[in-house]
Amino acid sequence: MQKIKIIIASDSVGETAEQVAKACVSQFNSKRFQSEVVRYPYIETNENVDEVIEVAKENELNIVVFTLVKPDIKEYMENQLAEHEIKHVDIMGPLMNILTEEIDEKPYYEPGIVHKLDEAYFKKIEAIEFAVKYDDGKDPKGLPKADIILIGISRTSKTPLSQFLAHKRYKVMNIPIVPEINPPEALFEVDPKKCIALKISEEKLNIIRKERLKQLGLGDSARYATGQRIQEELDYFDKVVEKIGCPVIDVSDKAIEETANDIMYIIEQNKMNK
Question: Does residue 123 share a domain with residue 103?
Fold first, then answer.
């Protein structure tokens, strides 16, 4: 069985060339040959090119697929490939040549422009990391830093909502409300306008919790899912919400996206009314 190694060489991360290579390989019967894709990113010097060439020379079936935009490095790569008669594909070169002629303008010749990270991207990553770090009330120090604070009893979708809102670039912290554990004091000191309480009906919560117990292989008679326990938690939740004085959203029959939209509307309205 033939074994073909496709060597990706790029002056950026090499993702573009790798995706093209894998798309091409997928068009052939994998039972007829073995393929391996190896990526060599950040090709910036002739020495980096030489390393790729040495690997490519190991087998005449090896193919070099490259995305190089810096003219000097690209020229050196092409010369070396030709000298050693190595099969190769230039992914970007032909199209860039046509564009240069049509637009009558020189390219930037700057690697990785398509992957440049803008401010919005950084904010999203920061928000996602924040949501993970401060999930489930892990550290009260996150409360003053949060854009949104979600509070609710168990199974009110606090964590998935935190992640969904993080992708919208909101820093979200969620606090579980449990009768046996007092909420952190800092919760009552932050601006209540950035707090959102997630409410759920007793009936809906009972169904959700019984289903959860089944998934865990437990009987549905556990105290966690009894009406008495649920009512106890809901009563305590109401007391905490009253003390904070924050908006309440009923999530009983709402999808995550719908609840998230309601939360964002309330938060943005509060910002405008400051």
Answer: no
